[in-house]
Amino acid sequence: MRLRIQIESAKDIILPRSYNHILQSWLYNQISDPAYRLFLHNQGFKFEKRTFKLFTFSRLQGVWRTGSDKKSIIFTGQVFLEIASPLITLMQEVAHSLLLGPASYWNQNEITITGLESINETLTPRPDGKWQLSALSPIVTYSTIEAGNKKQTNYYHPGEPEFSKLIKSNLEKKSHVLHELGWDEYAPLTGDFHLRPLFDPLKKHGIGFYYKNFFIKGYMGDYELECSPEWIKLALDTGLGSKNAQGLGMVEMAVGPASL
């Protein structure tokens, strides 16, 4: 399930260039049930050694410019934000709060919710098994290794085989979590899964940014996925790659053909 939120403000919306943590905190605050909010924020759903929050959100969409200090980003006019999750309770809580709740703030910016749209995409199996998805927020894959007494994070780009392998593994784990929660439509994923970028990852679409004080690198752009519809549904509902609840890896069906 996906929600598209239309947002307006009486003034320009001024945010730090790395604003994901502000939107994430705002979304958690839309959950009126304190027990559910704390569970999702502090625990989430566990599978093996991983924890999943099972939601993601997009970058802000709208007209923007960089502030004169080079550290801020300024949005003018309507702004759109999209949220995706298979968790009906979460989406209902967010929708209810956005429609009926008090005024909202992003830092010192007072915002008004002027529109809310629910988007449900119907997926019809394709003879060639190929789909095209567009990233609405950077897709992140990485591994952490021990280097001496320190941990070192290695981020992969879409041209490396690890990128597709880690995305596949991540989706498989999410499907197990949802199946254990009783969601029969999310049976453990099986079959082949192949992903390739429809761009040169060494030349464009790489984005480096900070989440709080942690540096992260991810990739925007269009991707071709060769798999069954079940993989695509889960990708649309939970995002691709890691750190989805930090506003990373949200995707949508690509509009029109894409090519290198």
Account of the protein in words:
By secondary structure, the chain is α+β, with helices and mostly antiparallel strands. The chain folds into two domains: 2-119, Alpha-Beta Plaits, CATH 3.30.70.1890; 130-253, 2-Layer Sandwich (Alpha-Beta Plaits), CATH 3.30.70.1900. 24% of the residues lie in helices and 36% in strands. The chain is built from five helices and 17 strands. It has helices at residues 20-29, 34-42, 88-100, 161-180, 229-238; strands at residues 2-8, 13-16, 45-47, 50-52, 56-57, 61-66, 72-84, 104-106, 109-119, 130-135, 142-147, 150-155, 194-197, 206-211, 214-219, 222-226, 251-253. Strands 1, 2, 5, 6, 7, 8 and 9 form a seven-stranded antiparallel beta sheet that branches. It has a four-stranded antiparallel beta sheet with strand order 13-16-10-17, covered by helices on one side. It has a two-stranded antiparallel sheet with strand order 3-4. Strand 11 (142-147) and strand 12 form a beta hairpin. It is globular, with a radius of gyration of 18 Å. The protein starts with a strand and ends in a 7-residue tail after the last strand. The mean pLDDT is 91.
